[in-house]
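Q: I'm writing up a methods section and want to include an example of the input and output format. Could you take the sequence below and give the corresponding predicted structure tokens, formatted cleanly so I can copy it straight into the document?
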Amino acid sequence: MRRTRIILGLTLFWGLLPPLWLTGHPRDKVSSFHAVPEPEDFFPRFQGNGSVPPACPWDRVLTGADQPGLYLPLLQGKRVGVVANHTSVVRRACLEGTAENLPGNREALFRPLPGTADTGFYVHLVDFLLDSGIQVRKVFSPEHGFRGQAEAGASVGSQTDAETGLPLVSLYGKHKKPTSQDLQDVDILLFDLQDVGLRFYTYISTLHYVLESCAEAGIPVVVLDRPNPHAGYVDGPVLDTVCCRSFVGMHPVPVVYGMTIGEYARMIQGEHWLQGGIETSLEVVPLLNYTRQTEYVFPVAPSPNLRSMKAIYAYPSLCFFEGTPVSLGRGTWHPFECFGFPASPEGDYRFTPGPIPGLSENPPCKGVECTGFRISDTILHQLPRQIDLGYLQEMYRVYPDKSRFFTAFFSKLSGTPGLEDDLEAGRTEAEIRSGWQPALEEFLKIREKYLIYR
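A: Here is the clean output for your methods example:
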């Protein structure tokens, strides 16, 4: 049986490093969230002011990537593959001392990362590894691509990164699973993606295929854990893997599964969900100072259309509309913060979707004014959090042609044909939720075995 291990301890230090951020290095090797003109800042609590980054905040949440002393020793002397995208960033202040005795370019460790809300406070993980002398052989990227600029569902091909010269292998479209050829020059694989904690967000499906390929090839995997904004609760229908399994839902879990991506990786292996029940050697570098109730604001938008914490908190309730004619605001500056459809008789918020490069080139309802609702800022502080079925029920109630309300994609998102049946039958939210409970209670028993944080 393969081992699954959680790496415990504090980041190791190899000496004191001078404050190289004072010298300034404006170019970056890798990437950042695609910056397009926008009317307002979407992650205001991460505004940078040009000041020197503070010392590593050991009393605040640190991601797995922020603790290089726990994973660099596992990578040294090995050929490394990295699953990463624009969210794979490291706090510069937490790198202090880690490169003193490493062969790479120390100044490059503190090169600013343009495009993050705290410009210059982060470096990209791949840059850090390269400049630490780690033999990164290739980068694997999920949906939205390595630079996070491709809209949902867009094809992203494999290519060579112009800045680093590294091969980029896309794990989306027809090539979702790494092949033996992709892994032939890899000794160990490092996984670092910012998940948002929902079954239909495809990074956990990418995680599944990565674990499966590495298990088949006998390659160990190290997962750098990151916070889940929906870790404090479990909600929604559990996926029926017989009728509704797809890349937006591969496992028998609810819409909101309440686990970090490191915990989820342990569950995939522990429940033998990989083909044939195979396992690989799995290491999880855990978060520091984190509980399931910890509020964490992302430094980088996780994907092009989740551009604010408000959108991320509303996502569990609104994403069902992707399987209906209702617009979610794609093609506006507030995707997943509003919803509506043309000529809706309900709502006081109007918006007209249009093409926005890097966000949505051909959004639903393009060029047609929609009427509906804008999500209130109160969702940022609303506790306890749960899926709000009221939005879906209201739009179904007022939609003029109910026979055209649900598309085939709806059951893939909900994970069951039951939710569509419930809405058509006019059942109340309480009645719908009662139908979820037996499967949720069984899932909670499974989930408990793999939790790292309380």
